[in-house]
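In line with agreed milestones, work has continued on tokenised descriptions of protein folds. One protein thus recorded appears below exactly as we store it:

>
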Amino acid sequence: MVGYPTFAVEHLIFGATLGVLLMQTRFVRR
């Protein structure tokens, strides 16, 4: 099995972006 690092990096970036957006929205709504 050959795993492409780009896929993992993209997934990590996507998750990090979602987390940051959620945190920002929480702080703003707070």
Q: What stands out?
A: The chain has a mean pLDDT of 85.
